[in-house]
Amino acid sequence: MTMKKIMTIPLEFVNYDQMWAIQIEIFPGKLSDWCLNLCLMEKGMIESLVLVDDDDKCRHKIIINLDPVLVHRGSVQIKDNKINISISTTELGHWLSFFLQYYSRGFADVDHIDVDLDSTSGYVGKEVGLMFKVTEYLPPLSSNEARRKLGL
Fold it and tell me: Does the structure show a pLDDT above 60 at 67?
């Protein structure tokens, strides 16, 4: 199987002190395609999902593959303008849970999720992470509300 799907979606590299973050923004208009592609990957119907920046600010192409033998969340390898991200079956399940719930309710519980990746090729000597941002989410809890929900 060599089938891949290509999506144009907002991508951005953000330089933090100790790491680079690859930010992928999932707008409501792209959410159904995003969820479908993740489901196709889970079922083995596509081998990879290729993400290309929708306005060419980010010149990198992101290729997401499922690697069922991975025991950690995922790994990233950066070479030239390609960013290869391999994720575990468990990690794909986390993504599906978050995004399918977001799709079904029309909002997410949080504004983003972070994914720590093992880097097989350091990028400018820093760690590389992945951040999925969404636009429709619940407001953050106040400290009093968090304590109440936790029974403290």
Answer: yes
Beta-carbon contacts of residue 5 (< 8 Å; ≥ 6 apart): 37, 40, 46, 48, 49, 50
- For residue 137, the 8-state DSSP code is B
Q: Report the C-alpha dihedral over residues 8, 77, 133, 138, rounded to 10 degrees.
A: 140
Q: Is 3 left (phi over 0), alpha (psi -120 to 50) or beta?
A: beta
pLDDT in tens, 105-125: 999 999 999 998 887 665 555
Distance CA 126, CA 19 (A): 5
Structural domains of the chain, with CATH: 4-150 (3.30.1360)
Assess contact for 21 and 13: CB atoms under 8 A.
yes
